[in-house]
């Protein structure tokens, strides 16, 4: 089921929660709504659901496929919901929770009790909870409860699944596991999903496309890869990961900042360059193009890469560099060590309208 939002805006009293937004979601897509607190993600999700009405002015429209659902009641939109706080019925078993939506269907459309049983067992099998069918919610872990919520939402075979911070209350490892669940179920059952998160990693890992929001506006809609490599503005760039700043002034093709110098192909004047941690290389000596002395102040060799914190007189805020374990060992990195930072590439946003063009430093 494709979803199309046209000119959807929302005010609460006089305060604006959403500027008029347009959004096209393709059939079968898994879309993440990502943004800081208060950016309008939940409001947008609730409007898609029909739990909240969009402003009448401008008169926006919501289409599910060819169907105009703008004025359709939530119960007629064929949507499955999963919320952060597993709103399971405490007095019902896992099985009955998942079956609930089916058992209260109008008699005409209600499956037989045999069909309901079969469907619930199949769903519990999919979320690997068939052994726990007779337990009550209080006897389950948070992650298990959220899997029950997912199965319950899917029992009615919705064409659209909406999830609001579905894994927000769970610890990191369980979150990871549930993300895989969701991706797996989404691909297997072929519905369209929209989920809200403020977690960049979650959005980038799980979504086919991410909608980045701030201040009630959609800043960018793109695949995780494009978002990361080609953010349309500074907000998106900074929101999607750690950023190192280099402020200085350019004269005759050299950016100077305290005693640091970097060859740049830019016009004279004040400049600010931004670098991701993996775009900072560490070397024992300066290069003809980059003379940027730094001191190692912290090292965290945990995970796939080593995170190295760097300080220097010419830096306002410490920098973060990520290096491979092999380079960490080769350089023999220790705290207090003096090295040289060499940018592999950098980004700049001279004004909010321009797009970033990463600058490769071939000969640095
Ligand atoms: N029922 C409401 N009444 C008044 N203002 C509201 C209401 N719901 C949301 N808002 C306001 O609308 C704006 C957008 O809120 P929304 O909940 O959509 O943001 P969000 O991005 O989901 O944030 P969070 O991540 O904190 O949940 C906020 O400024 C919020 O205070």
List the helices and strands and how they pair.
Layout: E1 3-12, E2 15-25, E3 30-34, H1 41-49, E4 61-64, E5 67-68, E6 79-83, H2 94-103, H3 113-126, H4 142-155, E7 160-164, H5 172-189, E8 192-197, H6 200-206, E9 209-214, E10 217-222, H7 224-229, H8 234-239, E11 244-251, E12 254-257, E13 260-263, E14 269-275, E15 280-283, E16 290-291, E17 293-300, E18 305-311, E19 319-324, H9 325-331, E20 338-343, E21 345-346, E22 359-360
Parallel strand pairs: 3-8, 3-9, 6-7, 7-8
Antiparallel strand pairs: 1-2, 1-4, 4-5, 9-10, 11-12, 11-14, 12-13, 13-16, 15-20, 17-18, 17-20, 18-19, 21-22
Helix pairs in contact: 2-3, 2-4, 3-4, 4-5
This protein binds adenosine-5'-triphosphate.
Would you mind describing this structure in some detail?
One of its GO terms (molecular function) is ATP binding. It holds the Pfam family ABC_tran. Keywords: ATP-binding, Cell membrane, Hydrolase, Membrane, Nucleotide-binding, Sulfate transport, Translocase, Transport. One of its GO terms (cellular component) is ATP-binding cassette (ABC) transporter complex. By secondary structure, the chain is an alpha+beta fold. The two termini are 50 Å apart. The strands form five sheets. It has a six-stranded mixed sheet, sandwiched between helices. The chain has a five-stranded antiparallel sheet with strand order 14-11-12-13-16, with no helix packed on it. The relative contact order is 0.11. The radius of gyration is 25 Å and the shape is elongated. It folds into two domains: 236 residues, 3-Layer(aba) Sandwich (Rossmann fold); 119 residues, OB fold (Dihydrolipoamide Acetyltransferase, E2P) (Beta Barrel). Adenosine-5'-triphosphate binds next to helix 1.
């Amino acid at each position: 089921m494709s979803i199309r939002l046209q000119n959807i805006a929302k005010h609460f009293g006089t305060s604006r929660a959403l500027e008029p937004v347009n959004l096209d979601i393709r059939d079968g897509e898994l879309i993440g709504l990502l943004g800081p607190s208060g950016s309008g993600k939940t409001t947008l999700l609730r409007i898609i659901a029909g739990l909240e009405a969009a402003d009448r002015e401008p008169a926006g429209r919501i289409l599910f496929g060819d169907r105009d659902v703008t004025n359709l009641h939530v119960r007629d939109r064929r949507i499955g919901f999963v919320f952060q706080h597993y709103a399971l019925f405490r007095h019902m078993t896992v099985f009955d929770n998942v079956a609930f939506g089916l058992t209260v269907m109008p008699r005409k459309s209600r499956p037989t009790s045999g069909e309901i049983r079969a469907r619930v067992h199949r769903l519990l099998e999919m979320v690997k909870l068939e052994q726990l069918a007779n337990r009550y919610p209080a006897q389950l872990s948070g992650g298990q409860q959220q899997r029950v919520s997912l199965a319950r939402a899917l029992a009615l075979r919705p064409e659209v699944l909406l999830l609001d911070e579905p894994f927000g209350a769970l610890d990191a490892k369980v979150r990871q596991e549930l993300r895989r669940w969701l991706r797996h179920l989404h691909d297997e059952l072929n519905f369209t999903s929209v989920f809200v998160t403020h977690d960049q990693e979650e959005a980038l890992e799980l979504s086919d496309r991410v909608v980045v929001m701030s201040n009630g506006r959609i800043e960018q809609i793109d695949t995780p890869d494009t978002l990361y490599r080609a953010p349309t503005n500074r907000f998106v760039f900074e929101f999607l990961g750690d950023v190192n700043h280099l402020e200085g002034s350019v004269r005759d093709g050299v950016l100077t900042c305290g005693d640091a110098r970097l060859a740049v192909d830019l016009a004279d004047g004040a400049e600010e360059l931004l670098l991701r941690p993996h775009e900072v290389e560490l070397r024992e000596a300066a290069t003809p193009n980059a003379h940027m002395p730094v001191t190692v102040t912290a090292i965290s060799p945990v995970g796939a890469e080593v995170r190295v914190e760097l300080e220097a007189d010419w830096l306002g805020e410490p920098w973060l560099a990520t290096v491979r374990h092999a380079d960490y060992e080769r350089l023999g990195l220790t705290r207090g060590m003096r090295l040289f930072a060499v940018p592999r590439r950098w980004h700049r946003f001279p004004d909010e309208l321009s797009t970033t063009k990463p600058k490769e430093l071939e000969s640095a």
